[in-house]
Amino acid sequence: MAPLWIFCCLYFALSSVSAVLVPLNVLVLSTPGFVSTDFLESVMQGYGVRYSVVRIDSAAPTRINYTELLWQPDGKTPRWGGLIMYPNVEAMGLLNRSDVDAVWAFQRQTGVRGVKFGAWPSNVGWNPDTTACTSSYSRMNISAAMPLGISGIKRTANLSAEGLYRCPALRSSPAVTSCNMWAADFTNPGIVMPCNVSSILDLSTTYVGGTLVNYQDGREVLAFMFDCGGWSTSCLALGHLAVTWLLQNAVPGVRQALLTVQTDDVFLTTDFDAGQPAGGKLFYRLSYADLAAHISWQNDMSNTLPAGSLFRADLPINGNGILEQTNTGTTAPVDINNEGCLDDPLYISLGCNCWYTGTASCPATLPDFCKSCTKDWAKPLGTGTSRVPQTAVGSSGNWSLANIQAKDALATAVRANTGNVATAFSYCHHTFTHENLDNATWFDADQQLALNIDMAGPAFLNLRNRTLFSSKCMVTPQISGLRNGDALAALAGRGIQCVTGDNTWKFLLHPTNPHYMLYTTPDTNGYANMAILPRWATEVYFNCSTAAQNVRLYNRLYQSYYGTASTISDIMKREAARVVREGLLKLRKDPHMMHQANLAMIDGVSLLMRWTQNVVTEYNRWASWPVQSLKLDDLYAAFLARQDRDACQLTYSLNVTATGAAPSVVVTSAAVPGAPGVPAKCTSSLLLSGGPNAGTPRVATATLAPGGSVTAALTGVTWRKPLP
């Protein structure tokens, strides 16, 4: 026990502590090439918590100086407010005794907590059952000993250990009163640190998967005795528990659970997949009755979600669909070819195969048509042939409202807001005729938007000035024109600042941060600074209105992958799991793509309803955060707000007294005023306990100048008491 005696003597010889300024930044200690910290990074990135990953390489020529890593040069001010180890590096022989002493002294003197994943049971106070090592399914239950704090994760969350390798801790073993570990230069018996442990995650009545460790020297650690990764919904949920506990319920950033569904092609008519009629028809067009059914259903969905939630569909409109119904005299549709090159018969007859592989990978031996028919093709400026006729210019002045009202019940209901169909949904532009813009001229793109603006205006649909209409952002047909500088310039000339992308295509995503939009450049897109807002595709298909139609097309695509035919229940459960895992628990803002045919009530329930109900059911098993749907312009604003907040390079530091009170926070901006991307003022956001319910934390905000600092008073905020 000599090593323990030496440690205790050192501990009690330290002087008493005074107040300390603790920055709410997180240090992640890991190893080279280890990627399974991704779930923790996704959670922190979702909030906007600043963190750094330091990888400990035993082969590096220079060892890490942990005093310099953990403390500012004055030796008194900490650099971090939370410490994560995954794998459990301090117990792997990667740290010397002096390194461990430095880390532990830092935690004692600052009150900083630690979180560990992949911890070996005996290192954190439990005996392992080495005969039961597995990655098979086991339900994990959050015990009453786990403080949920402001995480908003439900104690009844549907946690599963499937795929998470572990040698579980034995609950029935004699109580362990020490947490033993070794390091690179340790001699037996290593460090035998007295500790008190509680099970916070039960694998069964026999086994424990997670533990809260209180060490005799005053440190506190949350340890999970299994591996984790970002592919696991359970790990993401545990990531929220871990990060909010780690930062002691003072979390920098914003937590928004957003679920927005955009149903493109509203007012158009969609042909069903060949040989798949539904409702006695080969096509579908949205009806007033369909919208009315969705209004009452939306209210039910909002009430099914946690308090403060609001679900609302967003309807991108194509005004020419109204004229297709009217088709009388001067109120006739603009009749043009709307298709892109992929739908051109030449794509097949010429043997093209480059749409999905991209321009750079297209064989030089293929015809020019093939090489220019790729999703990432950039149209040379000034090229292309206009499809919209000159007679369409200003033609809205000849449209007859009387004819529209006589022949299109849906447009009439929207104009009159019958049954609140104009105010119960969000609306935005999707061009006039749905012309693919990849090879469109400036003239075509300009007229496609100009005519739709007129149709949405007071003279016809009377949508444009309503609160829920978006005029800054739009959805382009087939997510086209994003590498067509002529089209982008035309849209910008009509007030468009952002367009939606498609997350299926990596080149439409921000390369480093999924919470940012991608901005176009002259070199890549032919136009500068149009924002591309990320959007998820779904497995609900544009030409399907019934479950049977969607199942048939899904199985055509995926039956060989799954090895069996899928049912509509299978499809919706997979979709729900994906949306909760990749979207909601990662705090992504991206909306989800559907189409007007998915609103049909032919089955008595629309595909949109089925999809959303499954997502809501799955989500409600995990979290109690309010869920919101935002119109497209408001999504754009949310992305911009995150972009501005990050550009301000904010650090939040709690003033922690010797008693563990935190009466104020110092917010500091490291941004250079006037630098590109830096806003004129910075707005901070700090999530704290004391909100209206478990899923809604209190939010403390402050404004400051870029490069400046502000101290804001706090009430009811505490920090683990610093010790000598």
From TrEMBL:
It comes from the Eukaryota. GO terms for molecular function: structural constituent of cell wall. Residues 25-245 form the Agd3 CBM87 domain. InterPro entries: Agd3_CE, CBM87_Agd3, Yeast_SRP1/TIP1_CWP. Residues 1-19 form the signal peptide. The keyword Signal applies. The keyword Signal applies. Residues 259-331, 373-651 form the Agd3 deacetylase domain. Keywords: Signal. PANTHER family: CELL WALL PROTEIN CWP1-RELATED, SERIPAUPERIN. This is Uncharacterized protein. The lineage of its organism: Eukaryota, Viridiplantae, Chlorophyta, core chlorophytes, Chlorophyceae.
